[in-house]
Design goal:
The protein has about 160 residues and is mainly α. It folds into two domains: about 70 residues; about 60 residues, no CATH class. Helices cover about 80% and strands about 0% of the residues. It contains five helices and no strands. The N and C termini lie far apart (about 165 Å).
Length: about 160
């Protein structure tokens, strides 16, 4: 049965003759190729599915990071606005403070007046009482003792010498 010819015509034996074993081999080769192609298709489909899952996972991670970055950006904007507000407040406060030339003017007045050389009411009343006691008792040394007790002796001595 190996050399059996299907549909063979006795006259055209060569043209219509198909060899069954070669047909079986061709069929086996074709079915093997189809199986290989199916396996490749399945493998490619699996790879595409894994790639799709990876892309989806990557997109989720990127979206989460973008949300975090947006939140941080919003927080930074808020902080920058707060800093701007504080700077504006400091500027307003600095504008209401005295300028350098005004402070120098005040310093000149203070230096001219020299408030440290002033005598307090208590010191004046004490000095007057001591002078009165000294005048009543006839002592001249009481004035010098009193002058020694005054903080700025030179100023008081000049003033006391003017009064004599």
């Amino acid at each position: 049965m190996d050399n059996q010819v299907i549909g063979a015509d006795k006259k055209n034996n060569k043209n219509l003759a198909i060899d069954l074993p070669s047909l079986a081999n061709e069929l086996n080769n074709t079915s093997r190729r189809v199986r290989i192609m199916e396996e490749r298709y399945i493998n490619l489909r699996n790879k595409i599915q894994v790639s799709d899952e990876n892309v989806l996972g990557f997109n989720r991670r990127v979206n989460a990071k973008l949300r975090d970055v947006n939140e941080e950006l919003t927080l930074l904007r808020r902080q920058v606005n707060e800093v701007k507000d504080k700077i504006l407040l400091i500027i307003k406060e600095l504008q209401s403070t005295a300028k350098k030339d005004k402070l120098l003017e005040i310093q000149k007045y203070i230096d001219m007046w020299s408030p440290l050389s002033f005598v307090t009411k208590n010191e004046v009343s004490r000095i007057v009482k001591e002078e009165v006691k000294a005048a009543l008792s006839g002592e001249d040394t009481a004035e010098e003792d009193t002058l020694n007790k005054v903080p700025n002796k030179k100023l008081y001595k000049e003033d006391s010498s003017l009064n004599k």
